[in-house]
Amino acid sequence: MGILADRESRLLIDGELVAGSGGTFQTINPATEEVLGVAADASTDDMGRAIEAARRAFDETEWSTDTELRVRGIRQLQQAMRDRAEELRELAISEVGAPRMLTSMAQLEGPVEDLTFCADTAEGYQWTTDLGIAEPMGIKTRRTIAREAIGVVGAITPWNFPNQINLAKLGPALAAGNTVVLKPAPDTPWSAAILGELILEHTDIPAGVVNIVTSSDHGVGALLSKDPRVDMVSFTGSTNTGRAVMADGAPTLKKVFLELGGKSAFLVLDDADLAGACSMSAFTASMHAGQGCAITTRLVVPRARYDEAVEAAAATMAGLRPGDPNDSGTICGPVISERQRDRIQGYLDSATAEGGKFACGGGRPADRDKGFFIEPTVIAGLDNNAKVAREEIFGPVLTVIAHDGDDDAVRIANDSPYGLSGTVFSADEERAAGIAARLRVGTVNVNGGVWYSADMPFGGYKQSGLGREMGLAGFEEYLEIKAIATAV
Ligand code: NAD
């Protein structure tokens, strides 16, 4: 059955596709505002059954110790996604509003191919380490370190890059031997539900190992943080929700892994190609309508060339009209919902109220009366204390801020509650590296380098999160360490 023709997605619980006890909820195309169809609306009881299934599959099957089965299951899921790539592409475009161009990268094919890293890592991993014999406290002892799956993982994900984030949790969690309950965002249920269908139909992954629970009610996801049967919550979303997840997890002291918001800075040093750097900054801030946690949304430029920088950024953004995500030339599609569009508009209003000026954009595009579109916008005339410089907007909005030299640029970049990412542009690579070393962030792009890849860890300092996703570090987040001492 075609993915888009399948207009009522199901939950995957204990190896069966089932309806939600709460009925269904709609999934909307953000570019047209049309209802695409419906998804199963899980109740708290459904979530309870999914957690129970994951618990049983972890405690009573060989899943956590059968590495060969896990590697096979992950590769089968990857192949099934490759085989259905064109349908999945249409799904990402219609449900997420993902520009077609980005589906060959992080919106679809990137994360599908990244599953290779997860399977290869599990296959080649050193699950035990022999530390040899020693005589601690005078007792001759053979010491071994074993690495084991944590248990039941609750994965809670947002809507902006659902394929990337769902797979960046499922892949390593399964590779490490855990069982999973995945609870996607209510805005993008189908991107997750289809994984349930593919797992059931095309893989040897046993019943209960993966459960997929879509719901319109955020409270259903909150059960994952609270339930004592869940050993770890892997969450990606806003910093505020991350705090709630952490607080909900505290009574049972479960491991909480958080990928949260950002307000990253793009630093242009005084020896850099100013126009080229500002243009690149404007382009990245417009991609997927700015709905990326690691997008650099503060452009920090030498004060003496401030006007020139604003002009260069605005010239690029003015050329990136928000468009139909189906068109292969579109880079800036819609934002996910009316609520998000209104939220962004609120930030734009705050910028003018604080004395800022729009060098381009500033609201909804006049030529689009349907769809949740916002014009790529450059804000000038504000400093790093402005609301738009401090808070995550999650729209195609770039605030240009003046700096007075390298130290000041670093100070501005780090003067943020967030610490997810950053960019440095300089003609002198060594100087740029020195600045990169001083940034309190989890990923840094120097002169256009790309940190996004399967073997690179991704995550944030400060209030951007706890832990790392992807890479070996991302795999090991899902492991416990056991020290075994045998008297000899
Ligand atoms: P959100 O925090 O509103 O929701 C994320 C998920 O949490 C959804 O599935 C939602 O249903 C669920 N949720 C909501 N309240 C909950 C609660 N109390 N307990 C448990 N789950 C709950 O975020 P969003 O608006 O869907 O996504 C945008 C945010 O995600 C942005 O802040 C963005 O920066 C962040 N994000 C971070 C990364 C990263 O890796 N750091 C990646 C992508 C997005």
TrEMBL record:
UniProt cross-references to CDD domains, sorted A to Z: ALDH_CddD-AldA-like
Organism (species): Mycolicibacterium gadium (Mycobacterium gadium)
Aldehyde dehydrogenase domain mapped to chain residues: 20-484
Recorded GO MF terms: oxidoreductase activity
Family, as annotated: Belongs to the aldehyde dehydrogenase family.
Keyword list, A-Z: Oxidoreductase
Pfam families from the UniProt entry: Aldedh
KW Zinc-finger (keyword) present: no
Name the UniProt record assigns to this protein: Aldehyde dehydrogenase
